[in-house]
Design a protein that fits this description.
The chain has 348 residues and is α+β, with helices and mostly antiparallel strands. The chain has helices at residues 2-12, 23-29, 69-79, 113-117, 120-123, 130-150, 205-208, 218-233, 249-259, 272-288, 299-307, 328-334; strands spanning 19-21, 36-40, 43-49, 55-61, 90-96, 99-105, 154-156, 165-167, 173-175, 182-184, 195-198, 335-336, 339-340, 343-346. It holds the Pfam family Pkinase.
Length: 348
């Protein structure tokens, strides 16, 4: 029945979806899956090359029965409706029973995650400059603005995190992995959900509990704020790895430093401009992770805040929630082979 649903979807949306590939063709494109780029929640990703010479990334979806019909449809349906510099392009797909794959444009710099969480990067000076981090933050905000307001059908991503932000050769960010996305008619801004969806630590509180408000595009804004603060936390100059620091330490300590106008103490700040960029990113991140969705800025406002003057930004109320948990108990629930797994949990 699941296969019939997918085939029906592909037939109805035939003019919108990208090129269909046979599994045998996928094997040729990837040279029998020899060059593995990484592993995600829904499958492994391999480097490939099309007949026209274009390099691609092929995500071979897990074959667990009944696990990826909805995710497959979400991915194809969502990306097929998009065309934006900050959204990854879906080149093609494969659907042969349990053999399913998605073919994306290749991003030579991989995911943002490796530049944030690689503890060796600072030792080798192989880290992103603050102006590049600012460019990435603005690009992701532009991508979200497009998904929320620029498409014919609004798209709520529900899984914004460093692992799902891909970087091209010029470090232009591309939002990827739409497996948990929900489509929403243009005139509507609220979605109904039977289950919470997203990655632990990046999920907005209202997705877990209606006590915090109704679920809307502001859930993506919350996740975006967590992503931006995670980018900044990766530059914390305290001699410890991210995994060793307290979950509560950074957001609350950095808030107090901003409130008291103290030195923020982050690695790689070499000029006044770097300092301004870092402070803007922190302020934007703190604004986005407010527990009340109505208190979070809209995506177009995020871009204004990041590109405007630091002096025009005010310190928001102190956030009640911490950054993504890295405690052994939390990560043991959601890790697969060292990768953070997206999950669905019951709403309260």
């Amino acid at each position: 029945m699941e296969d019939d649903n997918v085939e029906a979807f592909l037939k109805i949306n035939g003019s919108r979806v990208p090129q269909r590939y046979s599994y045998s063709r996928i094997k040729k494109v990837t040279n029998s899956f020899q060059d593995k780029l990484g592993k995600g929640g829904y499958g492994d990703v391999y480097k490939g090359k099309l007949l026209d010479g274009r390099l691609v990334a092929v995500k071979l979806l897990n074959e667990t029965k009944g696990s990826n019909g909805e995710e497959f449809i979400n991915e194809v349906a969502s990306i097929s409706r998009t065309s934006h510099v900050n959204i990854v392009s879906l080149v093609g797909y494969c659907f042969e029973g349990r053999k399913r794959a998605l073919i994306y444009e290749y991003m030579p710099n991989g995911s943002l995650e490796k530049f944030i969480h690689n503890n060796k990067s600072q030792e080798t000076n192989d880290y992103l400059e603050w102006k590049t981090m600012h460019k990435i933050a603005v690009g992701v905000a532009r991508g979200l603005e497009y998904l929320h307001r620029g498409c014919t059908t609004r798209i709520f991503h529900f899984d914004i995190k460093p692992h799902n932000i891909l970087l091209d050769k010029d470090f232009c960010p591309k939002i990827s992995d739409f497996g948990l996305a929900k489509l929403c008619p243009k005139k509507e801004s609220i979605v109904s959900m039977l289950h919470a969806r997203g990655t632990i630590g990046y999920i907005a509180p209202e997705v877990f509990s209606r006590h915090f408000g109704r679920v809307s595009h502001k859930a993506d804004v919350y996740s975006y704020g967590m992503l931006v603060l995670e980018m900044v936390r990766g530059r914390e100059n305290n001699g410890q790895s991210i995994e060793d620091t307290s979950d509560l330490y950074f957001p609350h300590s950095i808030y107090k430093k901003l409130e008291c106008d103290e030195d923020i103490g982050l690695h790689g700040i070499e000029s006044e401009e770097d300092e301004k960029v870092a402070r803007k990113m922190i302020l934007v991140g703190l604004c986005c992770i407010q527990a009340n969705p109505s208190k979070r800025p809209a995506t177009n406002k995020l871009i204004e805040m990041l590109e405007g003057n630091l002096e025009s930004l005010q310190v928001p109320p102190e956030p009640l929630l911490s950054l993504p948990s890295r405690t052994p108990i939390a990560t043991s629930i959601i890790q697969i082979s060292g990768e953070t797994e997206s999950c669905e949990v019951e709403s309260m």
